Structure formats: C-alpha cells, structure tokens
Amino acid sequence: MFSFNYDKRMIYVLLAIFAVFSLMRMSADYLLGLLLTLPGVIIAITFHEFAHAITAYKLGDDTPKMQGRLNLNPLSHIDPMGLALLIFVHFGWGKPVQINPRNFDRKISISAGEAIVSVAGPIMNFILAIIFTILYFAIYKFANVAFIISNTGTIILTIIQATVLVNIGLGVFNLIPLPPLDGSKIFRNFMSYNVKAWLDKYEHIFYIVFLILWITGLAGILISPIIDVIQVGIFKLVALLFGINI
To answer: Any catalytic annotation for residue 49?
Structure first.
C-alpha cells in the first residue's frame, strides 16, 4: 500500500486495543505459531513496499529514492503498528511509499502509472509465495530425512509454509478495491472521470467500510477461500514440478 492520507492516530488506537484483546486470549502454542510467522511477515511487507518503490522509480519518479526506500532493509519499510496487527489480527501494512505521479514517464498516463505501481506490491507477494513453495519442496525432496523430521527441520519448514501463506494473504488482501488498499488504485485506472470524482468525494466512507470489514473479520471470511485456492494451486503445481504427489 502506498497511499494513506487520512489521520491514522485514532485508527491506530482502536486497532491497538483490538490487538491487545486478541493477545490476551491467545494460548502459548498460538503465540509460538505467531513467532514462527514473524520472519514471513517481515519478508512479505519488506518486499511488498520495495516493489512499490522500485516500480515508481523505474517509471521515472525519484521520490522513493530520495526517501531511502530503494532497498530491502526491513527498517525502511516496516510500520511497527502495521507489523503488530498483521501478526496478531492477520491484516496490516508497511510504511506507505510516497510517490509523485507527475514524475512518471510521459509514455503512460498518470492513472496507468499509479495502477502499475499499486499492482507491483501484490505481484511481488505472489512471486515470493511461489519461490518459497519451491524452496519448501526442494528441502522435502533433497534433504536428509533425519533433518526433515528433526526439530530444526520442522521449524524451518513451518517458517517457510507460513511465509508462503502470509505472502498470498497479503497479496490477495491488498487487491480488495477499497482505500487505502492497492486494489483501489489499480481499478481506478479503468474508471471514468465521473466515477473517480464520485469515489474521491466519498472516499472517507470507503475507509470506514474497510475498517468494518477488517475489524469484524468479514474481510478474512471473504478472501480466505481465494487464499486457500491460490495456496493449493501453487503447492500442487510445484509438487508436480518435483514429482511429488500431495
């Protein structure tokens, strides 16, 4: 996500309270699972935001470069609150990548450039999901059985599986066409001027809708089937590549 212009302080407070209550209800085993998920979360957010930054830069906007976003240092891209919420309530964000669409190459329109920058984040997440799935099956195929069933092997494979799932989830979630998600910028490129003006006028309402979907868990219910289908599809294709039946 790279655009979030509204004052977020109240939103942060509400979501922080929600995260605290969620944490209080978690068991020790669940907290261990969250710890094993943390590397995947950091990777997913870092590469997602880097993809926005490098794409905008390649299109002619040097704003991300001036802000130090053309790197894979997690500290450049992680928003502490967004990270915590992604871990505890499964939906979060990174530091927004600020861009200036007027700097884009004149070969494309501003709206098209914004759409390309927006879709770069989710695409990066899907690519990472495929890469880590390949890594998972490579270990499963070629590693020593003793290593696979060892505590170390189990932890590594669990982290890889979590990384795959987090990247798919972040990619799908960001394609929801509601601000401040990437999907809202992607689909704007295909809308008429009047529709865009109407959306801009009532943008605050769509933020509220987004928060309701998020906090109530409806967003998860809506996109979970899509995440499951993509995950199963990637696993089956990569397993076939390695000659493994699943």
So the answer is: yes
Per-residue pLDDT of the chain (246 residues; tens, 9 = 90+): 444 444 456 666 666 666 666 666 666 677 777 788 889 989 999 999 999 999 999 999 999 999 999 999 999 999 887 777 666 666 667 888 999 999 998 888 888 899 999 999 999 999 999 999 999 999 999 999 999 999 999 999 999 999 999 999 999 989 988 887 898 888 877 777 777 777 777 777 777 887 787 777 788 888 999 999 999 999 999 999 999 887
At position 104, the amino acid (one-letter code) is F
Boundaries of every domain in the chain: 9-241
Name 79's Cβ contacts closer than 8 Å, sequence gap at least 6.
92, 93, 94, 95
Instruction: Quickly count: other Cβ atoms within 10 Å of residue 177's Cβ.
Output: 14
Q: Which of 42, 46, 47, 49 is catalytic?
A: 49
pTM: 0.85
Helix, strand or coil, per DSSP, at residue 5: coil
Output the DSSP codes for 22-57: HHHT--HHHHHHHHHHHHHHHHHHHHHHHHHHHHHH
